[in-house]
Structure formats: C-alpha cells, structure tokens
Amino acid sequence: MQGSIFPVRRARLPEYTLLTFPDGDLIVKSSDKKEFRVHKKVLCLASEIFTGMISLDDVNPSVPLESTRPATVDVTESSFIMNALLRYIYPVERPRFSALDQIVAVMMAADKYLMGHVMKDLEDVLLGSTYLEADGLRVYMLAHHFSLKKLEDASLKHAVRKDVLSLRPEQIATAEITHFSLEAYYRLRFFAWKRAMRCETLIEEELFATPTGKICECITASRESDSKYLAEQPEGDWGGDIYVSDDENETSRTCEAVVKFRLLAYEALMEDCGTDVFRNDLMLKAAKSSKCRDSLRTLFEDRDQKITKIRWKMDKIPWEFEKEYLEAKKCNATII
Ligand SMILES: [Zn+2]
C-alpha cells in the first residue's frame, strides 16, 4: 500500500476523530486551528473549489521550500465541518450528527465547495430523520434554498402545518430564513388555509349533514320551550320562524355539544390544518363545555365508523394548492 493516497489503517474511526494521514501532502487548517493532513489529489477530485484553493495563493507561502512540512491551506470552516466533509471524500465512516444545526453547517459548506454528492447524502439523512417532522418548516426552507426537490416535497406537509409566527425567536434566527421570502411564507399559509377549509367541508358533509336520528336532552328541552312559547301566543300568531316538528326523529335542531365541537374543530384546523380534530381531548372539551346532559353520548356514541372514514378521507386531502394559489394571486384576491 506504499504510496497509496488512502490511509493504511482502515479501522472504524470514532466520529470525533479528526481525519489526518501521515503521508498527506497538504495541511488543511480549520478556523479553530485544527490541522488535517490530507492528499491534494483527493481534494482536487472531490471539489473544483479545493483545486482552485490549492493551486492558487491560498496555500500558505510562508513555509520554506526545503521544509518537509506540507503546504498549508487555511479554510473558514470549523474542524467539525471539515472533518465531516473529509469523511465524505475519503472511504471512511460517514459523519454522524446530533443536531440539525450540524447538518445545516455541513450543507452550507458542501454548497460552497460544490460537493453535490455530499448534498445528496445530507438530503437522504434529513429524509430519514426526525427533523423532517419536528423541524419541518426549517427543513423545508433548507430544501427550498438548496433546490433539493425530494426533501422539499417531503417536508412541505410539515411546513404547511407550522406557522412561522408560532416559532420561538431562536427558531427564527436561522441562516436559511434569510432566503425565505414573504411570498413563500404566504404561499404556505394559503395552502394551510385551503386545506383547513377542505377538512371543514368534509366534516360538515360526512358528520353533520347526515341526521343521527337521536334526540338528546338539549334538543328535547329546546323543542319543549318552543312548544310552550307557541302555546302562549295569541291564535294565528306563529311566532316568526319557530317551527316545532311532531316527528320524534326531527333533525332540524343540532345538539349543543355538536355545535361546540364544530367550533373547536374549526379553531384547531385554522391553527394546524393537519391536526386530528377527533382526538379525545378535543371531543371531551366540546362535551364538557356543552350544557347538554347527553353531550358525551351525542359526540361519542356510534361515531367510530364515521370518524374512521373521515380520517381516511382527510389523509387524501392534498397539502399543496399551487393552482388555486396562482389563481388567487392573479385575481389579486385576499388569500388568508
Ligand atoms: Zn344535546
């Protein structure tokens, strides 16, 4: 292996071991003054930017020609970032990341050094990470900035769900937000609003448009009250629009619990257009805030089948409404 550009020892290196090779002919010095002894040929093959840096004046000229110490090139990246980049260049263990900020920093460097394969690998890392959901908006902004289509598509759903105004200051203070325009933000808000509207319509059609055929305590009380009122009116005066059906299965009245649930569901959808409005806490809140003594029965009894069907249909509602957004823009309409 003498003369090989690759290290003799191929053992797995701990993630924080800085890559350095005794036979390296170039020293890359990071911003935190760590030195990586590497091979010019390898770096030149990996990035044309490195090629330019090595061949031009960036290589430290202060080293005497007779010195056995390799020439040095200073980089603005930290040792963590350089170590990660070198791990993509050499056939060693790939870097491991413990925070999204670390991935972002390496992405920035990969972009600077025109290392497309590193960017592609980092895209795959993010696609398989929990950051996709937990930090969806930031991941979407990154994908958008670096034109990573697969990541952009995968993170769109999570970005649409997350309103940038709900983020904490430290979440806002990211480098990528500077590349995120106000129009891009309103486009996401339009998608969120459009999806919330579609979910609301679905709930209306599937859950409330079909009569339950059940009369609860508050509907019975309402009917009795109206009957009493009508009975007290002089003959021929029917009290405006009040109508009391003789049908025990009358469905023109809605239980208070259902009205409460509908309001809470709509509020929840406007906050997060991907929320599960049929979750127990929301249903129980609606039941408890209703005066109807049958609220739990009204909201929970015989609903499972319908709810399963609605959830399934909700999953099919898209997260992107590009055509509608462009039409709204063309019409100069108020979009949210
Ligand atoms: Zn009721």
UniProtKB/TrEMBL annotation:
SMART domains reported in the protein's UniProt record: BTB
PROSITE patterns for the chain: BTB
InterPro entries noted in UniProt: BTB/POZ_dom, SKP1/BTB/POZ_sf
Residue span(s) of domain BTB: 24-90
Pfam families linked: BTB
Family annotation (SUPFAM superfamilies): POZ domain (SSF54695)
PANTHER family per UniProt: SPECKLE-TYPE POZ PROTEIN
UniProt-recorded name of the protein: BTB domain-containing protein
Annotated organism of origin: Sistotremastrum niveocremeum HHB9708
